[in-house]
From TrEMBL:
The lineage of its organism: Bacteria, Bacillati, Bacillota, Bacilli, Bacillales. The keyword DNA-binding does not apply. It comes from Lysinibacillus halotolerans. Gene3D superfamilies: NAD(P)-binding Rossmann-like Domain. Keywords: Oxidoreductase. The keyword tRNA-binding does not apply. This is SDR family oxidoreductase. GO terms for biological process: bile acid metabolic process. InterPro entries: NAD(P)-bd_dom_sf, SDR_fam. Belongs to the short-chain dehydrogenases/reductases (SDR) family.
């Protein structure tokens, strides 16, 4: 398929995990890419992997902290200056943060997680939606989490921020549908990304793989999801095939959120 031929897709958190997987998928389908991450080495790695599967891909790399509003405005402006438009936006960058009971959860840690996961998503929407409104079209996918539709123990900052992403998605979808823009969120469960690996290592650095095996047992499918499985979903949601899906939150979690 070439659903993204001549289309421009902007992705944050593109240096690894879900952002990288989505970038690879839309690149295979012809997208021009603006890739944003704080990790410059991660961006270069993503670019190299894209060029292996899509040698002619046009790729703009931007190193930026999504918690910095000026940096967000800058990556949006650079994308438009380079490509002239933004057809799709995967508003994905995020962190999990440290794990602790709420009473022991550091205030600075809480603010750090919220600033990246929630403020960063809000800033992205603020500046990208202005571009898409002027265009009269566009598609946005925000990364929420199963932690945004139910509780997640020992992760106050993460759960609060991802619930906020769900709220922003529904609210902005209601606002911008009239301008030809569709906005949705994905709610991934346990997907084996560097972030999830880091979370397991917080629990037991020496035996994190065994912890992971136990962690997925309550899931009906009893396995971790793969980043590329999320990439397929994101590509569909960013494509014209999903234009009428708006203000929706779509779990991709093997049935985890429906079991409890």
């Amino acid at each position: 398929m070439n659903r993204f031929e001549e289309k421009v897709v902007l992705i944050t958190g593109a240096g690894s995990g879900l952002g990288q997987a989505a970038a690879l998928q839309v690149a295979k389908e012809g997208a021009k890419l603006s890739l944003v991450d704080l990790n410059e080495k991660g961006l270069e790695d993503t670019k190299a992997k894209i060029l292996e599967v899509a040698p002619k891909a046009e790729i703009l790399l931007i190193t930026a902290n999504v918690a910095d509003e000026q940096a967000v405005q800058n990556y949006v402006n650079k994308t438009v200056e380079t490509f002239g438009k933004i057809d799709g936006f995967f508003n994905n960058a995020g962190i999990e943060g440290k794990q602790n009971l709420t009473e022991d959860f550091g205030s600075d840690e809480f603010e750090k997680v919220v600033s990246i996961n929630l403020n960063g998503v809000f800033y992205g929407l603020k500046y990208v939606l202005k571009v898409m409104k002027e265009q009269g079209y566009g598609s946005v996918v925000n990364t929420a989490s199963v932690g945004g539709i139910r509780g997640v123990g020992n992760q106050s900052g993460y759960a609060a921020s991802k619930h906020g992403v769900v709220g922003l998605t529904r609210n902005s979808g209601i606002e911008y549908g009239q301008f030809g823009v569709s906005i949705k969120a994905i709610a991934p469960g346990a997907i084996m990304t560097p972030m999830v690996e880091g979370s397991l290592k917080q629990i037991d650095p020496e035996n994190w793989e065994e912890v992971g095996k136990q962690f997925v047992q309550p899931n009906p499918m009893k396995r971790f999801g793969k980043p590329e499985e999320v990439g397929y979903l994101v590509a569909f949601l960013l494509s014209d095939q999903a234009n009428f899906i708006n203000a929706a939150v779509i779990p991709i979690d093997g049935g985890q959120s429906y079991k409890y």
